[in-house]
Amino acid sequence: MESLANLEAFVRSADLGSFSAAARQLGLTPAAVSRNVAQLEGNLRVRLFQRSTRRLTLTEAGERFLQAVTGGLASVQAAIAAAADDAADPAGRLQVSMAPSFGAAYVLPLLPEFLIRYPAVVPDWRFENRQVDLIGEGYDAAIGGGIALQPGVVARELAPVHIVAVAAPSYIGGKPWPQRPSDLAALRGIVRRSPQSGRVRSWMMRDQAGTEEADALPPHVVLDDPEAMTRAAVMGLGAALVAMPQALPHLESGALVRLVPDWHAVGGTIALYYASRTLLPAKTRAFVDFVVAGFQRQGLARRFSATP
Question: What is the DSSP secondary structure assignment for residue 135, as one 8-state letter?
Protein backbone atom coordinates (compact mmCIF):
# COMPACT_ATOMS: atom_id res chain seq x y z
CA MET A 1 0.00 0.00 0.00
CA GLU A 2 1.26 3.48 -0.87
CA SER A 3 2.64 5.56 2.03
CA LEU A 4 0.70 8.53 3.41
CA ALA A 5 3.81 10.74 3.07
CA ASN A 6 4.01 10.09 -0.68
CA LEU A 7 0.29 10.77 -1.16
CA GLU A 8 0.45 13.97 0.91
CA ALA A 9 3.41 15.21 -1.09
CA PHE A 10 1.57 14.55 -4.35
CA VAL A 11 -1.74 16.19 -3.33
CA ARG A 12 -0.08 19.27 -1.83
CA SER A 13 2.20 19.70 -4.85
CA ALA A 14 -0.79 19.38 -7.18
CA ASP A 15 -2.84 21.92 -5.21
CA LEU A 16 -0.04 24.48 -4.92
CA GLY A 17 1.73 23.95 -8.22
CA SER A 18 5.24 23.55 -6.83
CA PHE A 19 7.34 21.30 -4.63
CA SER A 20 8.64 24.35 -2.71
CA ALA A 21 5.17 25.55 -1.71
CA ALA A 22 4.17 22.02 -0.74
CA ALA A 23 7.34 21.70 1.33
CA ARG A 24 6.56 24.89 3.27
CA GLN A 25 3.11 23.58 4.14
CA LEU A 26 4.29 20.09 5.06
CA GLY A 27 7.38 21.22 7.00
CA LEU A 28 9.75 19.36 4.68
CA THR A 29 12.49 20.32 2.24
CA PRO A 30 11.61 20.69 -1.46
CA ALA A 31 14.01 17.82 -2.16
CA ALA A 32 12.10 15.55 0.23
CA VAL A 33 8.77 16.39 -1.38
CA SER A 34 10.20 15.82 -4.87
CA ARG A 35 11.66 12.50 -3.74
CA ASN A 36 8.32 11.37 -2.26
CA VAL A 37 6.48 12.22 -5.48
CA ALA A 38 9.11 10.48 -7.58
CA GLN A 39 8.78 7.37 -5.39
CA LEU A 40 4.99 7.46 -5.86
CA GLU A 41 5.42 7.73 -9.64
CA GLY A 42 7.86 4.85 -9.56
CA ASN A 43 5.53 2.67 -7.52
CA LEU A 44 2.59 3.46 -9.81
CA ARG A 45 4.73 3.22 -12.95
CA VAL A 46 3.13 6.38 -14.36
CA ARG A 47 4.19 10.02 -14.67
CA LEU A 48 1.90 12.26 -12.57
CA PHE A 49 3.50 15.68 -13.29
CA GLN A 50 5.00 17.53 -16.22
CA ARG A 51 7.87 19.41 -14.59
CA SER A 52 9.21 22.82 -15.62
CA THR A 53 11.42 25.41 -13.97
CA ARG A 54 8.34 27.56 -13.22
CA ARG A 55 5.48 25.26 -12.31
CA LEU A 56 4.27 21.71 -12.01
CA THR A 57 1.46 20.63 -14.32
CA LEU A 58 -0.55 17.46 -13.81
CA THR A 59 -0.54 14.91 -16.59
CA GLU A 60 -3.83 13.35 -17.65
CA ALA A 61 -3.03 10.37 -15.45
CA GLY A 62 -2.14 12.73 -12.64
CA GLU A 63 -5.50 14.50 -12.92
CA ARG A 64 -7.34 11.17 -12.67
CA PHE A 65 -5.25 10.02 -9.72
CA LEU A 66 -5.75 13.33 -7.87
CA GLN A 67 -9.53 13.07 -8.20
CA ALA A 68 -9.41 9.48 -6.96
CA VAL A 69 -7.33 10.07 -3.82
CA THR A 70 -8.17 13.60 -2.61
CA GLY A 71 -11.34 12.79 -0.68
CA GLY A 72 -9.92 9.70 0.96
CA LEU A 73 -6.66 11.42 1.88
CA ALA A 74 -8.53 14.31 3.51
CA SER A 75 -10.51 11.86 5.64
CA VAL A 76 -7.37 10.06 6.78
CA GLN A 77 -5.59 13.35 7.55
CA ALA A 78 -8.59 14.64 9.50
CA ALA A 79 -8.71 11.47 11.59
CA ILE A 80 -4.97 11.68 12.34
CA ALA A 81 -5.21 15.39 13.20
CA ALA A 82 -8.20 14.82 15.48
CA ALA A 83 -6.44 11.99 17.30
CA ALA A 84 -3.30 14.08 17.73
CA ASP A 85 -5.30 17.06 19.00
CA ASP A 86 -6.97 14.86 21.62
CA ALA A 87 -3.56 13.94 22.98
CA ALA A 88 -1.79 17.30 22.81
CA ASP A 89 -2.33 20.88 23.89
CA PRO A 90 -1.95 23.73 21.34
CA ALA A 91 1.73 24.38 20.81
CA GLY A 92 4.23 25.69 18.30
CA ARG A 93 4.84 28.80 16.23
CA LEU A 94 1.61 30.55 15.16
CA GLN A 95 2.17 32.59 11.98
CA VAL A 96 -0.57 35.17 11.40
CA SER A 97 -0.77 38.10 8.97
CA MET A 98 -2.91 41.17 9.68
CA ALA A 99 -3.20 44.84 8.73
CA PRO A 100 -1.01 47.03 10.98
CA SER A 101 -3.55 49.52 12.38
CA PHE A 102 -6.43 47.05 12.67
CA GLY A 103 -4.25 44.33 14.18
CA ALA A 104 -2.64 46.66 16.71
CA ALA A 105 -5.98 48.14 17.78
CA TYR A 106 -8.23 45.07 17.92
CA VAL A 107 -6.21 41.83 17.78
CA LEU A 108 -3.05 42.63 19.75
CA PRO A 109 -5.05 43.44 22.94
CA LEU A 110 -6.27 39.82 22.91
CA LEU A 111 -2.71 38.48 23.09
CA PRO A 112 -2.05 38.60 26.88
CA GLU A 113 -5.07 36.41 27.68
CA PHE A 114 -4.26 34.11 24.75
CA LEU A 115 -0.72 33.54 26.05
CA ILE A 116 -2.01 32.78 29.55
CA ARG A 117 -4.42 30.21 28.16
CA TYR A 118 -1.98 28.69 25.62
CA PRO A 119 1.56 29.17 26.99
CA ALA A 120 3.11 26.65 24.58
CA VAL A 121 2.06 28.68 21.51
CA VAL A 122 4.63 31.18 20.18
CA PRO A 123 2.91 34.03 18.26
CA ASP A 124 4.77 35.02 15.09
CA TRP A 125 2.57 37.85 13.83
CA ARG A 126 3.24 39.99 10.75
CA PHE A 127 1.63 43.44 10.59
CA GLU A 128 1.53 44.19 6.86
CA ASN A 129 -0.63 45.98 4.29
CA ARG A 130 -0.75 43.33 1.60
CA GLN A 131 -2.74 40.34 0.42
CA VAL A 132 -0.82 37.24 1.48
CA ASP A 133 -0.78 33.77 -0.07
CA LEU A 134 -1.96 31.98 3.06
CA ILE A 135 -0.90 28.47 2.08
CA GLY A 136 1.96 29.25 -0.27
CA GLU A 137 3.71 31.49 2.29
CA GLY A 138 3.11 29.12 5.20
CA TYR A 139 0.76 31.24 7.31
CA ASP A 140 -1.51 29.57 9.84
CA ALA A 141 -4.09 32.36 9.57
CA ALA A 142 -4.67 35.88 8.27
CA ILE A 143 -7.04 38.63 9.38
CA GLY A 144 -8.24 41.26 6.94
CA GLY A 145 -10.60 41.98 4.11
CA GLY A 146 -10.77 40.95 0.49
CA ILE A 147 -8.24 38.13 0.61
CA ALA A 148 -8.80 35.82 -2.36
CA LEU A 149 -10.13 32.43 -1.32
CA GLN A 150 -7.72 29.84 -2.71
CA PRO A 151 -8.49 26.12 -2.75
CA GLY A 152 -8.27 24.77 0.78
CA VAL A 153 -8.79 28.18 2.46
CA VAL A 154 -11.94 29.22 4.30
CA ALA A 155 -13.05 32.59 5.68
CA ARG A 156 -14.91 33.19 8.93
CA GLU A 157 -16.57 36.60 8.97
CA LEU A 158 -15.80 38.76 11.98
CA ALA A 159 -17.43 42.09 11.17
CA PRO A 160 -18.68 44.27 8.30
CA VAL A 161 -16.52 46.97 6.74
CA HIS A 162 -18.67 50.09 6.60
CA ILE A 163 -17.18 53.32 5.24
CA VAL A 164 -18.35 56.57 6.85
CA ALA A 165 -17.69 60.28 6.34
CA VAL A 166 -15.97 61.96 9.30
CA ALA A 167 -14.38 65.26 10.25
CA ALA A 168 -13.00 66.93 13.35
CA PRO A 169 -15.39 69.30 15.19
CA SER A 170 -12.80 72.04 14.76
CA TYR A 171 -13.01 71.68 10.98
CA ILE A 172 -16.75 71.27 10.48
CA GLY A 173 -17.79 73.81 13.11
CA GLY A 174 -19.54 76.81 11.53
CA LYS A 175 -19.88 75.17 8.11
CA PRO A 176 -23.21 74.06 6.61
CA TRP A 177 -23.75 70.49 7.79
CA PRO A 178 -23.82 68.09 4.79
CA GLN A 179 -27.11 66.19 4.48
CA ARG A 180 -26.23 63.79 1.67
CA PRO A 181 -23.08 62.61 -0.15
CA SER A 182 -23.34 65.28 -2.85
CA ASP A 183 -23.05 67.97 -0.12
CA LEU A 184 -19.52 66.74 0.67
CA ALA A 185 -18.36 68.66 -2.42
CA ALA A 186 -18.28 71.83 -0.32
CA LEU A 187 -15.62 70.44 2.04
CA ARG A 188 -11.88 69.88 1.84
CA GLY A 189 -11.44 66.20 1.10
CA ILE A 190 -8.86 63.83 2.54
CA VAL A 191 -9.00 61.04 -0.04
CA ARG A 192 -7.18 57.77 -0.64
CA ARG A 193 -5.03 56.79 -3.59
CA SER A 194 -5.12 53.05 -4.19
CA PRO A 195 -1.61 51.55 -3.89
CA GLN A 196 -2.64 48.91 -6.46
CA SER A 197 -4.21 51.05 -9.20
CA GLY A 198 -2.77 54.48 -8.38
CA ARG A 199 -6.25 56.00 -8.70
CA VAL A 200 -8.09 58.10 -6.15
CA ARG A 201 -10.76 55.94 -4.52
CA SER A 202 -14.41 57.03 -4.57
CA TRP A 203 -17.36 55.34 -2.87
CA MET A 204 -20.98 54.68 -3.70
CA MET A 205 -22.88 55.48 -0.51
CA ARG A 206 -26.36 54.30 0.46
CA ASP A 207 -28.96 55.30 3.02
CA GLN A 208 -31.22 53.08 5.10
CA ALA A 209 -33.86 53.09 2.36
CA GLY A 210 -31.32 51.70 -0.13
CA THR A 211 -30.93 54.91 -2.13
CA GLU A 212 -27.44 55.17 -3.61
CA GLU A 213 -25.36 58.25 -4.35
CA ALA A 214 -21.67 58.69 -5.13
CA ASP A 215 -19.57 60.65 -2.67
CA ALA A 216 -18.48 64.05 -3.96
CA LEU A 217 -15.53 64.67 -1.67
CA PRO A 218 -12.94 66.74 -3.59
CA PRO A 219 -9.25 65.70 -3.38
CA HIS A 220 -7.46 68.38 -1.36
CA VAL A 221 -5.20 65.93 0.51
CA VAL A 222 -4.34 62.57 -1.09
CA LEU A 223 -2.93 59.74 1.06
CA ASP A 224 -2.48 56.01 0.48
CA ASP A 225 -3.12 54.71 4.00
CA PRO A 226 -6.48 54.69 5.87
CA GLU A 227 -4.86 55.21 9.27
CA ALA A 228 -3.02 58.27 7.98
CA MET A 229 -6.29 59.60 6.52
CA THR A 230 -8.00 59.18 9.89
CA ARG A 231 -5.20 60.98 11.70
CA ALA A 232 -5.30 63.81 9.16
CA ALA A 233 -9.03 64.18 9.79
CA VAL A 234 -8.44 64.29 13.56
CA MET A 235 -5.91 67.08 12.92
CA GLY A 236 -8.69 69.11 11.29
CA LEU A 237 -7.28 69.02 7.75
CA GLY A 238 -10.64 68.16 6.17
CA ALA A 239 -13.28 65.46 5.84
CA ALA A 240 -12.49 61.82 5.04
CA LEU A 241 -14.26 58.59 4.15
CA VAL A 242 -12.76 55.86 6.33
CA ALA A 243 -13.73 52.44 7.64
CA MET A 244 -15.49 52.23 10.99
CA PRO A 245 -12.63 50.28 12.67
CA GLN A 246 -10.34 53.27 12.05
CA ALA A 247 -12.95 55.88 12.92
CA LEU A 248 -14.52 54.20 15.96
CA PRO A 249 -12.05 55.20 18.72
CA HIS A 250 -12.12 58.83 17.57
CA LEU A 251 -15.91 58.91 17.23
CA GLU A 252 -16.25 57.51 20.75
CA SER A 253 -13.77 60.06 22.15
CA GLY A 254 -15.35 62.99 20.27
CA ALA A 255 -12.19 63.73 18.27
CA LEU A 256 -14.25 63.05 15.13
CA VAL A 257 -17.92 63.46 14.27
CA ARG A 258 -19.80 61.55 11.64
CA LEU A 259 -21.06 63.50 8.63
CA VAL A 260 -24.15 62.45 6.61
CA PRO A 261 -24.86 59.91 9.40
CA ASP A 262 -27.71 58.24 7.52
CA TRP A 263 -25.32 57.25 4.71
CA HIS A 264 -22.46 54.78 4.45
CA ALA A 265 -20.58 52.71 1.87
CA VAL A 266 -19.97 48.97 2.04
CA GLY A 267 -16.34 47.92 1.80
CA GLY A 268 -16.74 44.17 2.26
CA THR A 269 -16.07 42.24 5.45
CA ILE A 270 -13.29 41.65 7.94
CA ALA A 271 -12.63 37.93 8.06
CA LEU A 272 -10.37 35.38 9.65
CA TYR A 273 -8.78 33.21 6.95
CA TYR A 274 -7.30 29.77 7.61
CA ALA A 275 -6.84 26.37 6.01
CA SER A 276 -9.68 23.88 5.61
CA ARG A 277 -11.47 23.21 8.91
CA THR A 278 -10.84 19.46 8.79
CA LEU A 279 -7.05 19.90 8.75
CA LEU A 280 -6.54 22.58 11.41
CA PRO A 281 -3.71 21.97 13.89
CA ALA A 282 -4.59 22.55 17.55
CA LYS A 283 -2.77 25.91 17.74
CA THR A 284 -4.71 27.31 14.77
CA ARG A 285 -8.06 26.03 15.97
CA ALA A 286 -7.40 27.57 19.39
CA PHE A 287 -6.49 30.93 17.80
CA VAL A 288 -9.56 30.98 15.54
CA ASP A 289 -11.96 30.18 18.37
CA PHE A 290 -10.26 32.65 20.70
CA VAL A 291 -10.41 35.58 18.24
CA VAL A 292 -14.04 34.88 17.30
CA ALA A 293 -15.00 34.75 20.99
CA GLY A 294 -13.05 37.95 21.69
CA PHE A 295 -14.82 39.86 18.92
CA GLN A 296 -18.20 38.60 20.11
CA ARG A 297 -17.44 39.51 23.73
CA GLN A 298 -16.55 43.09 22.75
CA GLY A 299 -19.49 43.41 20.35
CA LEU A 300 -17.17 44.58 17.58
CA ALA A 301 -19.43 43.50 14.72
CA ARG A 302 -22.19 45.72 16.15
CA ARG A 303 -19.82 48.59 16.93
CA PHE A 304 -18.28 48.49 13.44
CA SER A 305 -21.71 48.69 11.82
CA ALA A 306 -22.72 52.08 10.41
CA THR A 307 -26.40 51.26 10.69
CA PRO A 308 -28.52 51.36 13.89
Answer: T
In terms of residues, how long is the chain?
308
pLDDT category at 1 given cuts 50, 70, 90 is very low
Q: What is the mean pLDDT of residues 250-276?
A: 92
Least confident among 28-42, 184-198, 201-215, 266-280:
266-280
d(CA 194, CA 211): 26
Q: Is 240 exposed, middle or buried (0-12, 13-18, 19+ CB in 10 A)?
A: buried
Q: Phi/psi at 112 (nearest 5 deg)? A: -55, -45
Q: Burial of 39 by CB count in 10 Å (0-12 exposed, 13-18 middle, 19+ buried)? A: middle
From the candidate CATH numbers 1.10.10.10, 2.60.40.10, 3.40.50.720, 3.20.70.20, the one assigned to the domain spanning 4-87: 1.10.10.10
Show the DSSP H helices in the chain as ranges: 4-16, 19-26, 30-44, 60-87, 100-102, 111-117, 169-172, 226-234, 244-253, 282-298, 300-303
Average pLDDT estimate for 277-289:
80
CA distance 86 to 282: 9
| Whole-angstrom distance, CA of residue 149 vs CA of residue 134 | 9
CB hemisphere CA count around 235 (13 angstroms): 10
Give mean pLDDT, residues 110-120: 95
- Residue 194 pLDDT: 79
Longest CA–CA span in the chain (Å) reads 81
Task: Say if domain 90-308 classifies as CATH 3.40.50.10840.
Answer: no
pLDDT digits (tens, 9 = 90+) for 21-63: 888 878 788 888 888 888 888 887 888 888 766 678 888 888 8
C-alpha dist (Å) from residue 126 to 6, 25, 121, 142, 267: 32, 18, 16, 9, 23
Which class for 247: exposed (0-12), middle (13-18), buried (19 or more C-beta within 10 A)? buried
